[in-house]
Design goal:
Elements (H helix, E strand, L loop, with lengths): L4 H29 L3 H4 L14 H9 L2 H32 L3 H13 L4 H14 L6 H26 L2 H9 L4 H12 L1 H17 L2 H6 L8 H5 L11 H27 L10
Helix pairs in contact: 1-13, 3-13, 4-7, 4-10, 5-7, 7-10, 8-9, 10-13
Length: 277
């Protein structure tokens, strides 16, 4: 059924309005990062800075250890994403290929666990890490990020595994491949888009996470970037708006760059040529 031109024009307008709604905070953040203190205090703000400068960026780096904090965030996010994907992949394979009442209950529990608030688990989590001597350490924070992102990562990968034709795995079994060999050599390569998307989700979740890092990391040299950004806010709640906007803009760049690089892998299919001849 063909869509009329007015209806199509309305759809495009609605899409543009939605994109503008999503892009507005980021565009305003960029504009604020390049404005002078006088412009930031103007009663009639403008989109484009009248006298753009990099003073806010220089001030942000002078006031806070942004590079060190970004390094901590990068280590924690990359490690959490890699470990979560490595653990979730075989679990998703089992849950997708061996359906039972137990796996159905496990899938439901995975979804329900995402509704738990952070405050509900922070006290027992803190006590467990304290007994393991992992408080105020990046390994302890990475462990928390893996546990927190693993349920949703598992839920995502189960759907991707179910999309892989089981006939390919049956053909590998006929050739004498074990379950592990089938997972590594047949299923995992076809899951590349799903693995990348899941890793990206885990990375962004860990990169932007604030609450756990605030509670578990006390040493300034071990704090992550979201925690350091709060240092631009004074004791009375007054924010140093220009440097804060500059630092926040820099904090968003890694996620945008990584997504731009791996976008084709997420959207591209990799099942072409997978049929055994």
């Amino acid at each position: 059924m063909r869509t009329s031109r007015p209806a199509r024009a309305g759809q495009y307008l609605a899409l543009l309005a939605y994109l503008g709604f999503l892009a507005f905070p980021f565009l305003w953040l960029i504009s604020t990062a390049f404005k002078s203190p006088r412009e930031l205090g103007d009663l009639h703000p403008t989109w484009i800075p009248k006298d753009p400068s990099f003073d806010n960026f220089r001030q942000a780096f002078d006031e806070q250890p942004l590079l060190e904090a970004a390094g901590n965030s990068l280590i924690a996010a990359l490690a959490a994403a890699l470990i979560a994907v490595l653990i979730a992949t075989p679990m998703a394979f089992v849950m997708a290929r061996h359906r039972s009442r137990l796996t159905t209950m496990a899938t439901g529990w995975v979804v329900v666990s995402q509704a738990f608030p952070f405050v509900l688990v922070i006290i027992p989590l803190f006590l467990i890490l304290k007994n393991l001597h992992l408080i105020n350490s990046l390994p302890g924070l990475i462990m928390v990020y893996v546990v927190w992102s693993l349920p949703f990562a598992l839920w995502m990968l189960v759907g991707y595994v179910r999309a892989v034709p089981p006939e390919l795995e049956e053909a590998a079994a006929v050739d004498g491949a074990s379950k592990l060999r089938t997972l590594v050599s047949v299923t995992a390569p076809l899951l590349a888009p799903g693995l990348v998307a899941t890793a990206l989700f885990a990375f962004i979740t860990a990169w932007n996470e604030f609450f756990f890092a605030l509670v578990l990391l006390k040493s300034p040299e071990k704090q992550t970037l979201p925690v350091v950004l709060t240092h631009f806010i004074g004791d009375e709640g007054a924010a140093d708006l220009g440097p804060l906007a500059a630092a926040a803009f820099l904090a968003t760049l890694p996620s945008l760059v990584i997504f731009a690089i791996i976008q084709k892998r997420i959207t591209g299919g990799m099942l072409a040529g997978a049929v055994k001849s």
